[in-house]
Amino acid sequence: MTCKYGAIKTTVDGITFASKGEANRYAELKLMQAAGLISQLELQPEYLIVVNGVRIGSYIADFRYIENGELITEDFKGVKTPVYQLKKKLVKALYGVTIRETRA
Questions:
Q1: In what helix (H) or strand (E) does residue 96 lie, and over which residues does it extend?
Q2: Of 51, 64, 89, 101, which residue is 20 to 30 A from 27 by alpha carbon distance?
Q3: Confidence bin at 104 (pLDDT 50/70/90)
Q4: Structurally, what CATH architecture does the domain formed by 4-102 represent?
Q5: When comparing pLDDT for 6 and 78, which is higher?
Q6: Mind listing the pLDDT tens digit for each residue in 46-57?
C-alpha cells in the first residue's frame, strides 16, 4: 500500500511503518540495541506542543533511544514538509530536543 509522497507501507515484527526506509531503520536500530550500542528503543514518542497553556498539537517522532548516555529523538525523513519543519523548531524551543534526521 502506498502512503503520502509515494512511500510504501512496510510491516516488520508486526509493526507497520510509513515507509520501507523507516522499517529498515527500525531493523538497524534493533540490531544496534542487541549489540549494546543503543538502549531503551521507543517507537513513535510524542511531544505535546503547548504554548501559553494552549495545546497547539503534537509532534510524533519515529524513534527515541539512548546512545552514549544521550537521549536521541530521530525521524526518518523522505520529505521535509513545512509543517514538519515548524514542529521541529517548536520541539527544540519547548523541550530543547534536536531531532536527528536520517534518510535511506
A1: none
A2: 89
A3: low
A4: 3-Layer(aba) Sandwich (3.40)
A5: 78
A6: 999 999 999 999
Cα angle, residue 103 at apex, residues 102 and 104 outer, rounded to 5°: 140
Best CA proximity match to 18, nearest among 73, 74, 64, 76: 76
19/6 Cα distance (integer angstroms):
9
Q: What per-residue string of b and e applies to 16-29 under the rule 16 or more CB within 10 Å gives b?
A: ebbbebbbbbbeeb
Question: What nine digits make up the cell of 82?
Answer: 513545512
Alpha-carbon Rg for the chain in angstroms: 14
Q: Which residue matches cell numbers 538497524? A: 28
Which pLDDT band, with edges at 50, 70 and 90, does 4 fall under? low
- Ordered by start, the domain boundaries in the chain are 4-102
